[in-house]
Each structure stands twice: as structure tokens, then as C-alpha cells.
Amino acid sequence: MFDIFSFQQQFDRLFNQMWSDLATRPTTSSASAFNVRGTGDAWKVSLPLPGVDPQHVAIEAAGNTLTVRVNQPEDNENAYARFEQSITVPQFVDLEKVTASHRHGLLELTLPLKESMKPRRIQIDTAAPADAKQLHA
Fold it and tell me: Is residue 137 part of a domain?
């Protein structure tokens, strides 16, 4: 029997396990670690980018792969930084609607779930059918 109340917990556990099993490929000696957490209708991926100017960050989605590239030249305010990190995104994420923000050295990607994967409330009809009323009359 399917337990609808534990569905969200099982879904979160499965998704977190998939993310932790994914391989990344840095192009420099050290890659930034990322953190993934689920919300009701999206996943948030946080990637620390201390000292990186967001204008030197490129994010690309191709197929089911999301790639973050940093190519920051050295200047008076910022150190040289270059790396690439790619993650394979599960099919239930809507890559067409991914958004990104950068605040205080932290890049945060919002990966919304496809509409078909979002939990939805199902209304319970409590009115008695017309045929049942006639049988009791």
C-alpha cells in the first residue's frame, strides 16, 4: 500500500542520494563544494564562490546537464579564478525555468520541479451521489 504521507520524505531522500552520487569535474586544483536542499516545489543548489565577481560566472543548461563556469581574470579587487563544475540533473527538474542569484559570495540556483512532479492536493467529494439518495427514499 502506498503511504502518501511519507512520499515527500522518500522523494527527498532519493533526490539527496542521487545528488551525493553525482560526479563533478573541476578544471582547477580545487572545486567548490555545493549543497542541495529541497523545498516544496524546487531544489536549491548553493555553490560558494568567495571573491568571484558574478559577471565572470556562466551557467549553461544542455540536455540534462547543468554547468557552472568561472573564468575571472586577476585585477586590483579580485584574484584569478577558473573552474568548471557540471552536475547531471534528474528528469523531474524543469531546466527551462532554472534561476540563479549571487549574494555575499554564494551562488544559489533554483531548480524547479516539473509541474507533473509537484505535490498537489486532491479534493475529497463528500456529497452523496443522486442514485444513493433515491435508494434510501
Answer: no
Helices (H), the chain: 7-21, 130-136
Establish if 10 belongs to a structural domain. no
Residue with cell 427514499: 137
The DSSP H or E segment spanning 108 is: strand 106-112
Asked whether residue 109 carries a pLDDT value surpassing 90, the answer given is: yes
Q: What is the pLDDT of residue 30?
A: 44
- 49 within some domain: yes
What are the cell numbers at 79? 584574484
Higher-pLDDT residue of 50, 4: 50
Could you list the beta-strand ranges (E) of 50-135.
57-62, 65-72, 81-88, 99-103, 106-112
Distances (CA, A) of 99 to 114, 122, 128: 14, 29, 46
For residue 77, is it within any domain? yes
Question: Which is more confidently placed, 39 or 109?
Answer: 109
Half-sphere CA count of 93, side-chain side, radius 13 A: 25
Q: What is the mean pLDDT of the chain?
A: 78
Alpha carbon distance 73, 2 (integer Å): 54
